[in-house]
Amino acid sequence: MRTVPSPKPVVVTSDSVAFCLQLSRVIESYNASALSPTVSRLREEGTDLCRQGLVRPGLIRLRRAIVSLKRTTP
Amino acid sequence: MSEPTAFAPASPQPGFLRLRSVSLRFALVYGTLFICSAVLFLSFIWWGTVGLLEHRVEQAITTDSRALFNIWSEGGPTGLTMIIDDRLEQDVDDNALYLLVNKDNKWVAGNLAEWPRQIISNDHWFTMPVQRSYAQDMAKVRAYALPDGYRLLIGRDISGRTLLRKIVTDTLLWACVMVTLLAIGGGWLIRRLFRHVIHSISRTTQAITHGDMSRRMPVQGSDDELDEIAITINEMLERISRLMDGVRQVSNAIAHDLRTPITRARTQLEDAALHAKNEDELRAAIEQAVGNLDNVTSICEALLRIAQIESGARRSAFVLFDLIPALQDVCELYEAVAEDHGLRFVQHLPDHLPFFGDRAMFQQAVANLLDNAVKFSPPHGIITLSAEVLSTARRSDGTRGKMLSLSVADEGIGMSEADMARASERFFRAEQARNTPGSGLGLSLVQAIVQLHDGQLQLASNAPGLITRIEIPLPDEETVPAVQHTTTNH
Ligand SMILES: Nc1ncnc2c1ncn2[C@@H]1O[C@H](COP(=O)(O)OP(=O)(O)OP(=O)(O)O)[C@@H](O)[C@H]1O
Ligand SMILES: [Mg+2]
Questions:
Q1: What is the number of structural domains in chain A?
Q2: Domain B13-215 coded CATH 3.30.450.20
Q3: Would you write out chain B's pLDDT as a tens digit for each of its 490 residues?
Q4: Counting ligands in written order, which one lies closest to the CA of residue B422?
Q5: Are the beta carbons of A15 and B133 separated by less than 8 Å?
Q6: The domain containing residue A44 runs over which residues?
Q7: H, E, C per residue of chain B
């Protein structure tokens, strides 16, 4: 294992509002009427948080929504 | 002028730290052992937590890479891109890092903006910083080469773990400091304890070397090892002083008892030289002197014999024999002597009595007892010799087993209690015995012989007269299969 000191760390692109909205769209792309209340609530909360600039908590909620969607819809 | 300091012998340095001191060495060994085991223990904890965490991350990445390789071989870049997107969408832990680039180093999929410049080789672990929206984190990554010049970077954000690692490491470091303090404290305590013990021993022994033989080690009564040492040392001192007393008394007695016959012989010779009127008188004086000197020789011989027996060297001559014929040989001799003195001699002996020991020496012991009985009995008394086997007697070492009990009883002048206690001392003769011939070595020899056979000599009153009893442990049946009758004639 090597530790390389680097002057310029690489940017993690998933920490962004754009990615947030992308996830939100992914959820939307599922049949909206079939969304369970929990999933829609998570999605709403997540999107709101992202818009307010709290990207990290927002992302966590959106990801949870997607995980539970995947679990219920094959 | 000489320089005394240069040649002065290395005197022990006074004061607190003396490297030659055993107690300090003890403390150092204790401390070292304590620290070593603690460090070993703490490093186990470190590997069990921090090491395990790192290993887990590496394992997760490796497993992930295998899955992604499979996807690639089925669906190529497009399939891999979809899966990577999927993974990022469902990454609830928010720590996954992926990057897929093509042969022109252009971004294809993943959540890293560009290929990190420091990662030049594939299949090695790297730890590198990544810029997140909230802070700069550390990530553990590994690059993999794919066909067509594609390259895949898989990583995990390990900041959470880094924090944990720091906490654990800090805790362990503190633990190390505490352990060191404890080791020093414990070592100091051990050193004090040790010194305390050693000092009390050395104080007593020093007092003794300076001539105070009455000093004894203090016994705490706690029944521990220290008490054991103290008791052993005290017993040793007891025995040494008893031996020293014995030696002193014997040398006094030798000086006295040898002096008397020598002085007498000298006086006789001198007297004869000055006053003898004829050859016969001279001859008679010389004969008397020779008799006195023979007496001296026999005393010396007896003393040497006792010393030789007490040294235990004759134990190698022990054999198994029947005691009865051996006793009868002695009795035959003393029957005649008793008759001469107008005494009756009675014997109570069993038919056989297997015995393990030195035949000639044992006969000598019995002869000495019979000699005393005859010597200290007025006419018409009865002398009884009896021997019997006690089957389950308690021996002196606490075990139970067969014992020989042999006693000689007479009806003579007897002894007072105080004299009995001293009877086996060398040269001891009771007040009433002063006008009988003898040197006071007979019972000492008996005592030495009996002790050589692990036995005991006891004196008791026969009212009137004295009973002398010898008790000697007999060999157990198991240890001696058959009685070998010794056929030595003498
Ligand atoms: N059977 C006995 N009756 C009375 N006193 C005895 C008897 N046996 C021993 N003693 C006393 O014990 C003393 C010590 O006995 P021990 O046999 O050692 O010496 P000893 O008979 O006087 O001299 P040695 O045996 O050397 O010729 C005797 O002097 C005597 O006072
Ligand atoms: Mg005697």
A1: 1
A2: yes
A3: 444 444 444 444 444 555 567 778 888 888 888 889 888 988 888 888 888 888 899 999 999 999 999 999 998 999 999 999 999 998 888 889 999 999 999 999 999 999 998 888 888 999 899 998 888 888 999 999 999 999 999 999 988 777 787 888 888 889 889 988 988 898 888 888 888 878 878 887 888 788 777 888 778 888 888 788 888 888 888 888 888 887 887 788 778 878 888 898 999 899 888 988 888 989 999 998 999 899 889 888 888 888 888 887 777 788 999 999 999 999 999 999 999 999 999 999 999 999 999 999 999 999 999 999 999 999 999 999 999 998 877 776 777 888 999 999 999 999 999 999 989 888 889 999 888 888 889 999 999 999 999 899 999 999 899 999 999 999 876 555 444 444 444 4
A4: 1
A5: yes
A6: 17-72
A7: CCCHHHHCCCCCCCCCCCCCCHHHHHHHHHHHHHHHHHHHHHHHHHHHHHHHHHHHHHHHHHHHHHHHHHHHHHHHHHHHHHHHHHHHHCCCCCCEEEEEECCCCCEEEECECCCCCCCCCCCCEEEEEEECCCCEEEEEEEEEECHHHCEEEEEEECHHHHHHHHHHHHHHHHHHHHHHHHHHHHHHHHHHHHHHHHHHHHHHHHHHHCCCCCCCCCCCCCCCHHHHHHHHHHHHHHHHHHHHHHHHHHHHHHHHHHHHHHHHHHHHHHHHHHHCCCHHHHHHHHHHHHHHHHHHHHHHHHHHHHHHHHCCHHHHHCEEEEHHHHHHHHHHHHHHHHHHCCCEEEEECCCCCEEEECHHHHHHHHHHHHHHHHHCCCCCCEEEEEEEEEEEEECCCCCEEEEEEEEEECCCCCCCHHHHHHCCCCCCCCHHHCCCCCCCCHHHHHHHHHHHCCCEEEEEECCCCEEEEEEEECCCCCCCCCCCCCCCCC
Mutation choice for B interface testing from A4, A10, A17, A19 by most B CBs within 10 A: A10
Q: Can you give the residue ranges of every domain in chain B? A: 13-215, 245-310, 315-479
Q: Determine, yes or no, domain membership for A11.
A: no
* Ligand closest to CA B433: 1
CA distance B40 to chain A (A): 24
Q: Does B126 reach chain A within 8 Å, measured CB to CB? A: yes
> Is A59 near chain B, with CB under 8 Å?
yes
**Domain B315-479 belongs in CATH node 3.10.150.10:** no
Which of B443, B444, B459 to mutate to test ligand 1, by most ligand atoms within 8 A of the CB atom?
B443
Domains B13-215 and B315-479 share a fold: no
ipTM over cut 0.85: yes
Q: Which residues in chain B are closer than 8 Å to A13, comparing Cβ atoms?
A: 110-113
